[in-house]
Queue: 2 jobs
Job 1
Amino acid sequence: MLEIKNLQARVEGKAILKGIDLSINAGEVHAIMGPNGSGKSTLAQVLAGREGYDITDGSVAYNGEDLLDLGPEERVREGFFLAFQYPVEIPGVNTTYFLRAAVNALRDHRGEAELSAVDFLKLMREKIQLLELDESLLKRSVNEGFSGGEKKRAEILQMALLDPKFAVLDETDSGLDIDALKVVAGGVNHLKRVDNAQLVITHYQRLLDYIVPDYVHVLVDGRIVKSGPKELALELEERGYDWIIEEQVA
Amino acid sequence: MDVKDAASRLLAALPEGDAAGRTRFAELGFPSPRDEDWRFTPVKPITELNFSAASADADATLEGCVFAAIDGPQLVFVNGHYSEALSQVGELPAGVEVRPMSAGDCPTPPAPEDAFGALNAATVTDGPFISVADNVHFETPVRVYYLSTGSNGATANLRGYIRAEVNSRVTVLESWTGTQASYFNNASTELHAADNAQVEHVKFQDEHTGAFHVGGLHTTLGRDARVAHHSLALGGRIARNNLRAHLNGTGIEAVLNGLYLPRAGQLIDHHMVVNHEQPHCDSHEYFNGILDDDSRAVFHGRIHVHKGADKTDAKQTNKNLLLSDSATIDTKPQLEIYADDVKCTHGATIGQMNAEQIFYLRARGLDEESARRMIMHAFAGEIVERIQFETARQELDRIVWNRLEQMGGLVAA
């Protein structure tokens, strides 16, 4: 589904990603862990198509297509989704209106009829229950005044509405208390199917108690330095990252 | 030309009017930026006008004006003078009076609170008089058109009067437009809603962008009255709105709702004071602005909860979207509370159409142009959608939409 080869990226002249190789198949959940500044979020942003990153080498094939050639919105229309680490507040843009426009942009791309306001509301009610979100949030501006936990849950609500084939969750767990974490993880797990895949980026092993990955990758200084089964995450939790870094040096 | 000189030049140009009021204006003179209420709105460009009294113009037309598709009585004032030719009142139900002020008795105006008020009281030419008697629900909106065809300092002082008696209901739609630069309209409108009356008042201000507009709205509300005022401020080189509301009974619901869209060279100012004088009243003040180019906007909102006005529920927001680095907003939301048991909130936001927001929307599948559009239109739509009278709302929504399409955020994309 997703094939990253030797991906290298710079921000303001500074190399952040220094050759990432990663292959993800349908039905799989991969986790990327790593210390601060290792390039985790940069990878997420590059995959989503944010401007300001200089791709200096490598490729990302997504279902056989060159992902890096597509604009951010085109990626989404092809089934890509990024749950943001820091969702942006957009004062004045009503949440329901925004979500409906996003869903309809996707439907339009697929040649499906737009959802009416009534049908959309029905769909949304069903999804917000999954995230245990208060319906009143939907009447507010996008993310405006939401608590940290509400923002993260709203991200997963969007994921549920857009039903992506490939989702990247960028530190969706950070800042969440354990109850909110369970809700978010429950939502993500609910969306998992054999024909889609998820890449979970996290700083803490804790999330992986609830979203169980098939593979864990350790990102250090812009490279994946170790990959392994889910047990690797537990080892990282116990031993930290230093031993891997030392292993690399040696 | 100093400011003192401007006041006397203006008085010399205007009809005699009321001597005491003239003296008062001469004493006060034009406000200076040292005056706290005018700190961010320098009226110097007004004082530099070569004043003359705006005169009637038989060639003026309503072509291109809003609300043309709406039936009902319409009063038209051209350069401050009633235009019989353009006005249409027709048959009115019993208890409804719609006429120019000049055609009958005028209630005594309230004591002016500032120089522009004093000037208005002293030298007013004409304006609408709209009155709806007890228990009359007048479902047809009354339209009032203010046309300006003067230029080069042509000054008109207008006074409007709207009274909705007990249990009555009325909708008033105002339109302000002009064809030439550098005229000056100084207007004052009183809106009295008696007990249990319902009033919707829309002010669509699209004056020439070289013109000057100072408009006061003085609202008094009786018990259980429901009043919504919508200010759509698009025009004027300097456009100042003085909104004053006195919630003078229990159970009142007042909504002051405003949108301003200044572009190059414009300054639009809303200066609002809401007085909660009795318990159990709700007031909501919503003002959104989208500023382009080097434009400026000012929002001053004070909610004054007087002693004894318990259970007041007041909510005030002022949100601003800056499309350009050189646009400026001065916002000053204030609460003054002298009652114990109240619920009051206020807040102001200022934001730019930033890359983060646009990327976020694109990362949800919207193309860049749609993303910019969404941010702008929704911001404006939030205000427009509060207009209850549907035909007017739809038309104003379209006008605002078209205006936004001409603003920088979209063209630059």
Job 2
Amino acid sequence: MNFPILSSLILLPTIGALFILFTKSSSGKYQSSKYVALFISLANFLLSLYLWYVFDKNSVDFQFVENREWLSGFINYKVGIDGISILFVILTTFITPICIISVNATITNRLKDFLIAILIMETFMIGVFCSLDLVVFYLFFEAGLIPMFLIIGIWGGERRVYSAFKFFLYTLLGSVLMLVAIISIYWITGTTDVEKLYELGIKAEYQNLLWLAFFSSFAVKTPMWPVHTWLPDAHVEAPTVGSVLLAAILLKMAGYGFIRFSLGLFPIASENFTMLVYILSLIAIIYTSLVALMQEDMKKLIAYSSVAHMGFVTLGIFTMTQQGIEGGIFQMISHGLVSAALFLSVGVVYERHHTRLINKYGGLVSVMPRYAIVFMIFTLGALGLPGTTGFIGEFLILMGAFEKNILVAMIASLGVILGAAYMLWLFKRVVFGKINNQELKSMKDLKTYEIITLSALVIPILFFGFYPEPLMNSIEASVENTLNMYNFDLINNLASKD
Amino acid sequence: MENFQYILPEIFISVSIMLFLLVGVFKKNSAGLIYNLSNISLVILLALIINLSSLDTIYLFNESYLIDNLSNYMKIILVGSGIFVMLTGSKYIQVINLNKIEYPILILSSILGMMIMISSNDLIVFYMGLELQSLALYVLASFNRDNLLSTESGLKYFVLSALSSGLLLYGCSLTYGFSESTNFDQILINSTEFNYGTTFGIVFILVGLAFKISAVPFHMWAPDVYQGSPTSVTLFFAILPKIAALSVFIKFLYTPFANMNDQWQTIIVFISIASMIFGAVAAIGQKNLKRLIAYSSISHMGYALAGLATVSNQGIQSSITYISIYLVMNLAFFSCLFMLKRNDKYYENIEDLSGLSKKHPILSFSLLIVLFSLAGIPPLAGFFAKFYVFLAVIEQSMYFLAIVGLLATVVAAFYYLRIIKIIYFDPEKEEYETSHNLGLKITLAISTIFILAYFIYPSGITEIVSKITMI
């Protein structure tokens, strides 16, 4: 047995959290625990980069698989990654240190607890992307609720209790049905091992109901219209770092789940429900973009834009074309970077001016020129300007959509225009114009750590915008494999019907 | 005579009870001594039971008494939790002036009654055990006799319990009348054909048992008795009678009435669903933690019964696993409750937890873990308990039961979250005392670590439980 690299990736943050638990807090400042957390998360990031380096990009199999007996023989602890999941793992390990660096801006009390919560969260998030067993997946998927509930509830804004409850109960309600489905799969096929399930396949008669049960969980988490309402609340009330984690990684769990489980396990049902997903995605794209236009709160605007962007993702995934799925994955990575950056940018001005209302700002370009530049890059990334990651994702998704359904693609394209409208309008109102408010004049430009975190996000957004090859390379074989299996199952099923 | 070695635990505990009574009568101020002696005798009792547990199935006394894997396991967790109940409550009963010689003796006799219940293989022996444990519990409920709530709860428990015992006895007599035997195995053999008499017998017996386990619609006593009784007795109520009643449930359903599962399955499913939903909904408005945990235990019993409704070994085992994890969670919860003490006064309202996390981080963390576990959130032990039950339920394609049960967990999650909100999000109040006795601390530490680390090696309990087969 080789070195269990994935398990160490999953466990390292938790060990770090335990370590922080026992560090002495020096006069309430907890600086030492912050460095520990940063060190651990950076180590994890480097480990995941190493993983990417040794990862065989041409293979379609799951790699670094670990399989251990766990629940008295019938359910195994099984982890492994393929070209799709490795990107999400790296995204997670990349965003976490950024979160930890930006912690001291917003978190004033109980810093130590906060760091522990973030590190535990990282464990669960990596676990979700690595798990190759449905029960293990469910375990990580659900466990993430606990730290996030606390992050929103303890360090959140005024209506934090309401938002934390809404977040928790919505997600839990969606997930319990998935649990029923997972157990049913176990009794139908005799295993919850994803790889074995890919081989065995699930009988067509069960697929529709199982698909819907999984969908109920993923739709809430994505979030899709009409169950998206928890997201704006959670985002607005969560501390900046919480919003970053939520937008950048938590939402991606569902998109990842769609590819891995909905397409992989239930191809026939996915085909049946394609239209449903299209319609919900289109509503998400158009409707939430319109809602975003009218927002007065910056965070809320970005939250609604997240719903719209995730609408593109689900649309792309369910086109079942190579371009569409690759675009969906790329869009998720891109949105992970861009939305994280946008929430951090909002955090920057919120920390100085203590309001998120758009009309309290204006003319920031004259007092914070550096901020204006990075914020512009992120805005352009969000609206999908060529040269940023956002463009490639949306472009591929629309290509896939045009191949399948021209009407859907055309409506979705409208969303791109609306996206440009609300993002540019936000940018105009916040950064350009005259300074009306005298207090704004005293605002300082970016501090060192803000430059570090924001430029750390600018680099991948631009780099992969111009040169998406490394990411595409990594996902290509796996997506092709997923699609082949998908089509194979469909044809087989059609053949058996005749 | 050689049979006596198998009931050595029961003999030992009976002799100890009488011995302690004598000590209590002849020696003044011996309450503390007897308390400690009782605890030691429980430990010895546990050792005796474990010593016997390797044996196969043994019938004693004309097949009216049965020692098998089920009874052994149930007795072990019964006595084991009895020890922890005594450990956690020792300081409490001193503080509220209940440290009398009767207290530990009543607990011991109640445990003896439960052990007889668990091992009984005959209607009469079963009823004897049941009444022994109930009688002790009536007194324990009203043990704080100067407290109005406590006396009320004792009286209430007595009246309702007597009624349910009456129903149970009536059911027993009907069963006896139509199957011509009081022996469980004989009843099974004699009742191959359907007749209304036995069906009525089943219904009455199930009503009586549902009362003991506080399942809806026979739950009315639970909130009042839980709230009124001294907290240490509430802890006792929350764990031990449930273990005994659940194992009797298993016995009745799968030995004498095993052929009639089409008759009782619907009843159990109904009781289970009603308990899950009612327990979840009714707890939302509660202000008192003990009352809340009463409703919570009602809904937990619903889940335990859901496993029994499946008519499969898997289901029985899942119920037993459920109750084992449930008792650890309750131990942890009540240990936290015992720590809410300030100036010799114990606090038990939800509001008293406000902002607890700032001054008492460890206590709050334990409560956090316990509450999330009670809500069934992975990766804590409570999740696995529910997981096993639903695994068994879905195996039998009882999807309705599974979906209702899981939706009820979402409702239940709300009130657990509310407590967590009060602990972690609300402004802080006065500090509580931080010095607690060792037994309490150990219990809390063990149970919290058990809940937290259960996922590392979840097959431990299941492997032991998988030996218990009834079908």
